[in-house]
């Protein structure tokens, strides 16, 4: 069972620092999101194949653990362990759900965030790389955002298979 409160608690605890139990990356957004998902109880699988599953351990990790584009494909296709479904709008997301961003609209997803609060229906997100806490989900005020930015909204399935 996905513990959304635990995932959000982790996100709020580590939003501006780094848990020494995990590696730190220059582009740390997806590593941070994966840590939040793991704190919520998401099961890992696929080790030691870096191209399979979602996992970290033994000094290495899957690409889906560490890169937004790979996490996007993993969440969009996984049928076991950590799974999710896409929804049409950010307003459909709950705490602990994930958003991935393609700022250039080139088909390559470059950022990921976790929903940690809501302002009415508007999700607020936490992220690493440029660490933010409870920022509006759309990143319209970010230097990385472009008018053509695309987003995928992932609703994490509460029950793991």
Summarize the topology.
Blueprint: H1 4-14, H2 29-39, E1 56-57, E2 60-61, H3 63-66, H4 68-77, E3 84-87, E4 98-102, E5 111-119, E6 122-127, E7 132-136, E8 150-156
Antiparallel strand pairs: 1-2, 3-8, 4-5, 4-8, 5-6, 6-7
Helix pairs in contact: 1-2
What do these coordinates show?
The chain is of the alpha+beta class and 161 residues long. Helix content is 22%, strand content 25%. The chain is built from four helices and eight strands. The protein has helices spanning 4-14, 29-39, 63-66, 68-77, and strands at 56-57, 60-61, 84-87, 98-102, 111-119, 122-127, 132-136, 150-156. The protein has a six-stranded antiparallel β-sheet. Strands 1-2 form a two-stranded antiparallel ribbon. A hairpin with an 8-residue loop joins strand 4 (98-102) and strand 5 (111-119). The chain is globular, with a radius of gyration of 14 Å. The mean pLDDT is 94.
Given as residue ranges, the uncertain stretches (5+ residues, pLDDT < 50) are none
Q: Report the order of strands and helices.
A: HHEEHHEEEEEE
Helicity range: 10-25%
Largest sheet: 6 strands, antiparallel
> What average pLDDT do the residues reach?
94
Shape: globular
Query: What's the total number of strands?
Result: 8
In the sheet with the most strands, the strands line up as: 3-8-4-5-6-7
Note the total helix count.
4
The radius of gyration is: 14 Å
Strand proportion, as a percent range, falls in 15-25%
> Gap between N and C termini, in Å?
9 Å
By secondary-structure content and strand pairing, the structural class works out as alpha+beta
